[in-house]
Amino acid sequence: METTNLTVTPTQRLLRGHRPRIQYSARATGARRMSLDRRFKAVCIAMTFAFLTGTHNRGHAEESILMTIGPRIGFRTTSTPLLGKQQKEDFRLYDVAALLRLPWHSQLGKSSWKLGTRIITSLGVIEGGGDAGLLATFVPDVALSGWNGLISLDGGLGIGLFSRSKFGVQDFGGLAQIVGTVGITFTPFTHGYAGFRVQHFSDAGLYGSDALGVDMYLLEIGYKF
Fold first, then answer.
1. Which of 87, 95, 148, 224 sits in a 20 to 30 Å window from 210, CA-based?
2. Which helix (H) or strand (E) holds 143?
3. What mean pLDDT is predicted for residues 166-190?
4. Rounded to the nearest 5 degrees, what angle is found at the Cα of 77, between the Cα atoms of 159 and 120?
5. Is the pLDDT of residue 23 over 50?
6. Is 32 a domain residue?
7. Do the Cβ atoms of 197 and 183 come closer than 8 Å?
8. For residue range 68-125, what is the model confidence (pLDDT) as tens digits?
9. 25-63 pLDDT, tens per residue?
10. Cβ 126 vs Cβ 133: under 8 Å
11. 161: closest CA among 201, 192, 196?
């Protein structure tokens, strides 16, 4: 009776023994990456608070240059298009925004409504498609405020700077993007406000037809000076 040789060669033993280690290494790398992303967000937000607080302390005159400061949370899903093409990835945004006063403003007749100019600056983290990067914005803005500052409607156009241009399969085309924003803010308390904002990032065709920006819906709260 013929017997089958079941001898396992050293090469086969090496390959069989190596597979679990490859799987474990991939899992460990993924866990380390998630941990680094969380630390990255925490460090960025902490540095932003420190920077903006220092700006406020140096900016006092007759009227504070720094009007408001607070955190914002933004989201954008592929199933909720607003402008432009259908998005390829879901995005999340975590940042801190500061509103800086500009000198020009005008009262609208004898009403309690007035027009004013400001600059919205922000620094934070945007993530999508499993990737995360820094995002800073600088947006000159015009606001219509009424009822003794209870409500404010604003719109502006500025620039956003990303630390990376590709998130998952979605490519922004370049690190600099045009930022368009409209928002509404409520100030029910003397030193507290809440608001909702739509923010559109686009390259306006500067990086070619394959580049794709993103629209973000932002919820914001914070302290009013």
1. 95
2. strand 131-146
3. 95
4. 25
5. no
6. yes
7. yes
8. 999 999 998 766 556 666 778 999 999 999 999 999 989 888 888 999 999 999 999 9
9. 445 444 544 454 555 555 555 554 544 444 444 444 346
10. yes
11. 201
Distances (CA, A) of 45 to 11, 48, 111, 122, 218: 51, 5, 39, 10, 16
CATH of the domain at 36: 2.40.160.20
User: How many secondary structure helices (H) and strands (E) does the chain include?
Assistant: 1, 10
b/e string for 71-100 if b means 16 or more Cβ within 10 A? Answer: bbebebeeeeeeeeeebebbbebbbbbbbb
Residue 143 lies in a domain: yes
Q: What is the pTM of this model?
A: 0.70
Decide if 5 is inside a domain: no
Residue 138 included in any domain: yes
Average pLDDT, the chain: 80
Instruction: Give the helix ranges, DSSP H, for the chain.
Output: 10-58
Q: How far apart are CA 100 and CA 158, in angstroms?
A: 14
The more confident residue out of 206 and 134 is: 134
Domain count, the chain: 1
Domain with 41 in it: 10-224
Q: In the structure encoding, which two tokens stand for residue 122, read together?
A: 């922000």
